[in-house]
Amino acid sequence: xxxxxxxxxxxxxxxxxxxxxxxxxxxxxIMAMLFIGVTMMTSLSLRPVLIDVHQPLxxxxxxxxxxxxxxxxxxxxxxxxxxxxxxxxxxxxLSHGLLYLLMIxxxxxxxxxxxxxxxxxxxxxxxxxxxxxxxxPVFYAWLRLAHGALAWLLFAIILGHLGxxxxxxxxxxxxxxxxxxxxxxxTAGKRKPESGSTPKA
Length: 201
Known about the structure:
Blueprint: H1 17-42, H2 47-74, H3 86-116, E1 122-123, E2 127-128, H4 137-172, H5 176-181
Antiparallel strand pairs: 1-2
Helix pairs in contact: 1-2, 2-3, 3-4
């Protein structure tokens, strides 16, 4: 009996334009948000102005993170090199999963914190978002602690992400960094991802 040829979805060498724009745009927004948050805690004079920036920027990051996740799940992405050790593959999978959770979860925790403290989230145009949770001083205190802790966790993961990106770009030079840094007019061919590999998001 003649074997029936099998086909596989073409694996691109680079992420699509939407993914790249969201990646770099959100990287700038998230770093700005983290530094705004630190400054809010150390400067009482700047706090009112920074809160007015912090709230809409956080909601923008939440919305963009949802769009980015939908794009990530609906489009083919590059596979990691087969030369990467399993430990690094597992670390990449874990860190990217945490990044998505924090990009969505951290703004939601902040929104809930404002609601528990009976402060609406104000967006440009004086439009306020509905409360996520009822007013509760104790719950507000816990959410405030969680918001700060998660922000530091996000900062630590971003530093690790940056270090890994620079290692791939300057040391390994295996195409992982360029997959997000530049476009692609073709694909790497109709091939399966390497066993145990996971894409960089």
